[in-house]
Amino acid sequence: MSTVVLLLVTGVGLGAIYFLVSSGLSLIYGLMGVLNFAHGVFLTFGAFMGWEVAARMGATSWPGFVLSLLVGALAGAVFAALTERFLVQRLYERHIEQVLITVGLALAVVALFDGIWGTDPRFISGPAWMARTTTIAGANVPNDRFVAIAVAAVVLVALVLFLQRTRYGMIIRAGVENRSMVTALGIDVRTAFTLIFTIGGAVAGMGGVLASHYFGYVSPVLGQTLLIFAFIVTVIGGLGSLTGAAIASVLVAVLQQFANYYWGYGDFAVVVLLAVVVLTRPSGLLGKKVAA
Question: Residue 97 contacts by C-beta under 8 Å, 6 or more apart in sequence?
């Protein structure tokens, strides 16, 4: 029983990381139609900036941890905003060019990270409480999992409220439905779309900091590794659906944890799940149905 509880809670914690990465992808593609293969480097950049802050302020202090989260989010946001403004903004509705430019950017930036921080992983530690465990039904669950779950829940609520209750959220949703009409009303849709990209980068950067604590290290390829599962989560959950991304993140991560423990092929089990969803429900769990 304790093993099941440990795998379940740890899986939800990993799912929280997946959600922080995939939510930005889901927003950017689902609302803007942009295939952003450079999303992983937003995460990696945020993780490295968070690591730099934690190393200087004291990795085991709560102020250092909180500041590293904020700096990681800011770093991811700035990187994403610059990417959208100078590279992606000219390529809307041009998917092949989007893939080429974002894949090229990802490869170049990973090489840049290799040159700055080296190819070896940089190990990180957080506040002492995060290194301890909490006993639940006989299972000793690492406390950093609870931190990741809490942050992901707050981000989910904040993003939903932003899109549904704020002026910019309404502009973004209207711009997706009819961009020319919104532009004719004198509203600059480009600024709203840049904001979406920025928010996606901020969430990814924050996810990078939490991922570094989850895995215990930062490396130049951390973001690209997580990006694979983020794309899987986005497809399973449904493009543009934050709730779908949250459900799919937990589903994928829990399946991965149980399959790894009992079978040893967690990644394969996730790919099988992806294939089943694509074949039976191409729009994803909560995505819009594809017309026949």
Answer: 91
Greatest Cα pair distance in the chain: 61
Distance, in Å, from the CA atom of 233 to the CA atom of 241, rounded to the nearest integer, reads 11
SS3 of residue 121 by DSSP: coil
How far is the first Cα of the chain from the last one, in angstroms, to the nearest whole number?
45
The answer to whether the beta carbons of residues 51 and 122 sit under 8 Å apart is: yes
pLDDT at 292 > cutoff 60: no
- Number of neighbouring beta carbons within 10 Å of residue 242: 22
Tally Cβ neighbours within 10 Å of residue 287: 20
* Single-letter residue type at 55: A
What is the per-residue pLDDT for 176? Answer: 62
Each residue's pLDDT tens digit, 72-107: 999 999 999 999 999 888 887 788 899 999 999 999
Q: Whats the size of the chain, residue-wise? A: 292
65 CB-contact burial (10 Å; exposed 0-12 / middle 13-18 / buried 19+): buried
Asked if the model's pLDDT at residue 215 lies above 90, the reply is yes
Going 11 to 14 to 19 to 21, the CA torsion angle's sign is: negative
Cα separation, 23 vs 61, in Å, equals 29
How sure is the predictor about 290, in pLDDT bands with cuts at 50, 70 and 90? Answer: very low
Residue 177's pLDDT is what? 63
Tokens of 162: 């932003």
More confident residue, 33 or 202: 202
DSSP 240-277: T-HHHHHHHHHHHHHHHHHHHHHTS-HHHHHHHHHHHH
Which are the contacts of 227, defined by CB distance < 8 A and separation ≥ 6?
A: 21, 25, 37, 39, 40, 43
The more confident residue out of 164 and 289 is 164
Residue pair 222/47 in contact (Cβ under 8 Å)? The answer is yes
Per-residue tokens: 57: 């302020």
